[in-house]
């Protein structure tokens, strides 16, 4: 879609050259969402491509993913064999869309869009990721993935701030993963998404929930839970009014399906 109201297009080679940020400005990454929607309030696009933030860094401490890393690049990367947790990243790419989208869409863009049906946000929560956030004229800050999204298409990002990097600790990458997703139609928008991470050393289980709730949520157990324990923790931590209710599914149905997916995921461990 052509954005006829855009007045200026910037392509900085350094973040500190971005000055005088004001209303109507926005960062541009892959553009797979921004160019599919009307953007009547936007006047200036600031393209991140020249900043070269597309790196994938495998270190003894864990994994760094540059915010502008294309999803297809992440999917094709050769990770250490014992990093079983990267299965969740691969699933997040595979479940998103066609190759035409994943060859342009960025990991950071999907996270910052902050829609409930994001395929990446529950993964990052389940893997205990954190985000490095940059400001053109301030020091970087770090935010846990579980605290980043505050509402539907709302995040902790302040004006002119931008997601620079995703960090996943090595310990989480050694966990076993189950990725469960239910849609109302094939390739449709999910009504519930459950990413379960299991630590075989300690039996700890961490669930990242998405699509069924407005923001990604974490549910944790010190052991493999029973069906009753899953039901109890959903009732206490995520009662019915926490779930989305819309044309696709009722809150009660989403809660029920989420419980089913949580139980089903444990069968893979």
From TrEMBL:
It comes from the Bacteria. InterPro entries: CO_DH_flav_C_dom_sf (IPR036683), Diverse_Substr_Oxidored (IPR051312), FAD-bd_PCMH (IPR016166), FAD-bd_PCMH-like_sf (IPR036318), FAD-bd_PCMH_sub2 (IPR016169), Mopterin_DH_FAD-bd (IPR002346). It holds the Pfam family FAD_binding_5. Residues 1-173 form the FAD-binding PCMH-type domain. GO terms for molecular function: FAD binding; oxidoreductase activity. This is Carbon monoxide dehydrogenase.
């Amino acid at each position: 879609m052509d954005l006829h109201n855009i007045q200026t297009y910037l392509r900085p080679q350094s973040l500190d050259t971005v000055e005088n940020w004001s209303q109507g400005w926005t960062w541009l990454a892959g553009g797979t969402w921004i160019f599919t929607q009307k953007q009547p309030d936007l006047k200036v696009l600031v393209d991140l491509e020249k900043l070269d933030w597309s790196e994938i860094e495998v270190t003894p401490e864990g994994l760094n993913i540059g915010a502008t890393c294309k999803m297809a690049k992440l999917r094709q990367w050769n990770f250490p064999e014992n990093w079983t947790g990267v299965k969740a990243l691969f699933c997040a790419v595979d479940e998103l869309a066609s190759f035409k989208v994943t060859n342009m869409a960025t990991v950071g863009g999907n996270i910052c869009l902050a829609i409930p049906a994001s395929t990446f946000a529950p993964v990052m929560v389940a893997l205990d990721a954190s985000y490095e956030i940059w400001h053109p004229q301030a020091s970087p800050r770090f935010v846990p993935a579980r605290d980043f999204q505050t509402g539907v298409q709302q995040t902790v990002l302040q004006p002119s701030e931008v997601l620079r990097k995703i960090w996943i600790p090595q310990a989480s990458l050694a966990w076993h993963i189950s990725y469960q997703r239910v849609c109302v139609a094939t390739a449709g928008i999910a009504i519930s998404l459950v990413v379960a991470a299991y630590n075989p050393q300690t039996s700890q289980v961490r669930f990242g929930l998405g699509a069924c709730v407005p923001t990604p949520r974490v549910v944790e157990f010190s052991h493999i839970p029973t069906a009753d324990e899953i039901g109890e923790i959903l009732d206490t931590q995520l009662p019915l009014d926490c779930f989305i209710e819309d044309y696709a599914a009722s809150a009660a149905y989403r809660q029920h399906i989420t419980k089913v997916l949580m139980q089903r995921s444990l069968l893979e461990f």
